[in-house]
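Structural prep section.
Before we set up the soaks we want a predicted structure of the protein with zinc ion in place, mainly to decide which crystallisation condition to try first. Input record follows.
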Amino acid sequence: MDFFVARKGRTVIKLVIAFTIVFQMNMTPIASSGFAKELENEPKEEKKVSDLSADNREEDKNEESLKRMESLTEGIGYLNVSLIGEAMEAFFKTIPKPEPTIKEEPKAKRNWSFKYKKAVTWGNRSTNAVALTFDDGVDKKSIERTLKALKKENARCTFFVTGVNLSTYAGLWRQAVEEGHQVCNHTQNHKMLEGLSNDKAIQEIRGWEKTAGEVLGQEYLTRMKQDFPFVRLPGGSGNSSSRIIKIVSDLKYIPVGWSAETLHSVISRYDKKKNSADTIAKSVANHVVGSAQNGAIILLHFDSYNTLKLEYILKTIKERGKEIRPVSEILE
Ligand SMILES: [Zn+2]
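Run finished without errors. Recording the tokens verbatim:
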């Protein structure tokens, strides 16, 4: 046992001394030595041939130093292993560590006032950003395509998904939340609220919350009600109704309308039998890009017309100097 500890101790102290020498002689920056590289788990860089010969010279020098120190430390034999451990620890503390990646700037909590008399249709018009919003969530392929495009282009959006569709594609909506998107209330069954009694309208909104709690978790629901308490009324029914807006406000929601949409302005104008989805999608893309002014809230749906050209939409909006942000980040 003593023999083993002594052997181990000797090897470790030689390493410490060798590193110290390398460091002091300023031969090789310590972070680029092989040992440190493994610790830091940095990607290995490819070396040019000229660099390699320089490295060999460095290695020769290191070898020399090691041999020199070996002769100096010959006979020490045994040292307190914990002291060596401390020395190593102190030594490696001097190696600069990469900064942790901060995904999102911490934001001050907003105190939403629920002051709206009608559904909000624009964000702050002096902000250099637009909000793309996606509704319903019926088509699985389109949801997947949307998530993929948003991830690729590093854009975060607000989704208004019905309770029914939350349950159907639970995994995809959980993925959406993990990827930084906001999944908000679009009622449980997509009924036009203006045609419902107060109680039934409340049930529709509360029903969504129950489903969201089951699918996305209570913690998510609490965060949503605090940080992005948005509802989009199905079909815009109730957007200007004081009765429906009061119900929504009492439930601590901000009704979110839109400054531009694609269903009535573009898609329904096409004959689907005579035009391909691709043709319609191109037209949708041009309309969205043209509508992406400061503070715009643009309503899209999870369908092929709205999502086939989504990458182009995202790229073009960004190329024109605008950011794409969730609704909570563009409202005044
Ligand atoms: Zn809808």
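Observations: The longest strand covers residues 129-136.
Flagged for discussion at group meeting.
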